[in-house]
């Protein structure tokens, strides 16, 4: 389905990004993996993907730094010629109630989750415009829609990602580029590992499908949006949350 396409996935060393990279590779795409610091795990993902018979490139880089994003995109372009799919997945949390949230915790989360996605969009858009095709998928979150106590910084960043997704979809639709967001609910990864078991059990009760999500649940939807099956879908926010928010 994606044979010969080139896909960049930011934050692909673990969690949802790793699952997305593996899923796109299983469909035949060549994969450019990005990570920030966790080299060992990133190289393990790279090896796993190599074993699937597609080509890969692993690029270390902090998406909050525009020069490191430029290096990521240029390295991918140099190796693969075209970049067909860009998945802006990397993200962080620094949760606290606002009365205890430090200014730097707000800034860090905005720098990575919002400015980082902006850096990636700014670098990839001219390339896709020249190609006259491209699929961009941004990772938002249901809390970007609902808000969440203790996540003023994170929910603002994820609401911002929705705004950027819709604005860019309007800007580049005429160039054959689609831009969509995926808004996961509670997905079992390192990011949600720290939550207390009691809290997770309470969460499950509020989810119609009665379970937390798996990284592969999100990856399957990203794969659809990256495929030709979604050619007439743009500017959308697809929730992958077991029906939690409806
Ligand atoms: P995770 O397990 O914590 O993994 C985060 C990934 O992002 C890692 O690969 C990490 O690289 C990378 N990363 C972090 N900061 C980066 C930076 N500045 N530059 C480049 N890469 C960076 O997170 P996850 O749960 O898979 O979440 C993935 C995305 O889904 C995030 O955008 C998150 O906000 C969103 N999301 C998650 C959930 C959930 O329930 N898990 C729900 C809604 C939305 P290193 O390994 O090198 O640190």
TrEMBL record:
Q: Specify the pathway.
A: Lipid metabolism; fatty acid biosynthesis
Gene3D superfamilies in UniProt: NAD(P)-binding Rossmann-like Domain
Binding annotation for NADP(+) = 11-14, 89, 154-158, 187
Q: Which GO terms describe its biological process?
A: fatty acid biosynthetic process; steroid metabolic process
Q: Which GO terms describe its molecular function?
A: 3-oxoacyl-[acyl-carrier-protein] reductase (NADPH) activity; NAD binding
Q: Which PROSITE patterns match?
A: ADH_SHORT
Active-site residues, as the UniProt record annotates them:
154
Pfam families tied to this protein: adh_short_C2
- Which reactions appear under catalytic activity for this entry? a (3R)-hydroxyacyl-[ACP] + NADP(+) = a 3-oxoacyl-[ACP] + NADPH + H(+)
Do you know which SMART domains this protein is assigned to?
Answer: PKS_KR (SM00822)
Q: Which residues form the Ketoreductase domain?
A: 5-185
Job description of the protein = Catalyzes the NADPH-dependent reduction of beta-ketoacyl-ACP substrates to beta-hydroxyacyl-ACP products, the first reductive step in the elongation cycle of fatty acid biosynthesis.
Family designation: Belongs to the short-chain dehydrogenases/reductases (SDR) family.
Q: How does it assemble?
A: Homotetramer.
Descriptive protein name: 3-oxoacyl-[acyl-carrier-protein] reductase
Recorded source organism is: Clostridium diolis
